[in-house]
Write a structure and sequence with these properties.
With about 220 residues, the chain is an alpha/beta fold. The protein has 6 helices and 11 strands. The strands form 2 sheets. Strands 4, 5, 6, 7, 8, 9, 10 and 11 form an 8-stranded parallel sheet that branches. A 3-stranded antiparallel sheet has the order 1-2-3, with no helix packed on it. Helix 1 (about 55-70) links the parallel strand 4 and strand 5. It binds S-adenosyl-L-homocysteine (SAH). S-adenosyl-L-homocysteine (SAH) binds near residues 135, 183 and 193. S-adenosyl-L-homocysteine (SAH) binds near residues 161, 186 and 190.
């Protein structure tokens, strides 16, 4: 940062809100700043998890950035049959999610879980959280119908470039805490499916519903 002593910046602590701060002392690695005023009360993002299969580097970066902007509370890299698991770098995902949170002025930073196989995630699932998996096979519930009553806590799962395997789809279909969702007649890229699913959910049951700035 190019800031110097007496300059003002905004900061948040992830629990009580956003503050205006002024730099009092500047060292090589640390700065000292004082709070000059509170700007906003804390508001948490909705309790929606994104389970995504890491894809190529740039597309994975895009998925993380957009998911943070679209308000997810937790990012869970999910290894599926057709996922290239070499691409799961949790530290990089954490750094990117912090940067995206700052950029979009969220007041909380989403958690980033370490990558896990889909089967393991499903066998340890907490049934209080419904899981919506994006199903490109055209057999899912239309997105508006699926998300109209999808009250948080929920999770959204998007498959990799290669899609889900037949066995994965069979397993997902037979579980009692899952719903397959279709995002229309075209096959979307994984990153497009992430942005579409999260936007639809936010508009139908998330924090875009009735959002209006309080004066
Ligand atoms: N390789 C697959 C497509 C995978 S698309 C094929 O050609 O058939 C990557 C992921 O995006 C899918 O696993 C699914 O989760 C999601 N997706 C893409 N298009 C979708 C659609 N129309 N409806 C629901 N999910 C979709």
């Amino acid at each position: 940062m190019k800031l110097k002593v007496d300059d003002i910046f905004f900061g948040f602590d992830g629990t009580s809100g956003e503050y205006e701060l002024q730099i009092v002392k500047q060292g090589k690695k640390h700065i000292e700043a004082k709070v000059t005023q509170k700007r906003r009360d804390f508001e948490s993002s909705p309790d929606v998890w994104l389970l995504f299969a890491p894809v190529k580097k740039d597309q994975t970066d895009f998925i993380i950035q957009k998911a943070v902007e679209l308000g997810v509370s937790e990012l869970i890299p999910t290894i599926t049959r057709y996922t290239n698991s070499d691409r799961t770098k949790t530290e990089r995902f954490v750094a990117q999610s912090i940067e995206a949170a700052e950029q979009c002025r969220r007041l909380d930073i989403p958690k980033v879980a370490s990558a896990k196989p889909l089967s393991e995630i499903l066998s340890n699932w907490d049934r209080g959280r419904h899981l919506y998996y994006m199903d490109e096979s055209r057999t899912g519930t239309p997105v508006r119908e699926a998300f109209s009553q999808a009250v948080a806590p929920i999770a959204i799962l998007v498959g990799p470039e290669g899609g889900f395997s037949e066995e994965e789809l069979k397993l997902l279909r037979q579980l009692d805490f899952t719903t397959g969702v279709t995002l229309g007649p075209r096959i979307l890229r994984a990153e497009t499916a992430v942005v579409s699913a999260l936007s639809c959910w936010q508009a139908l049951s998330g924090d875009w519903v009735n959002y209006k700035e309080q004066s």
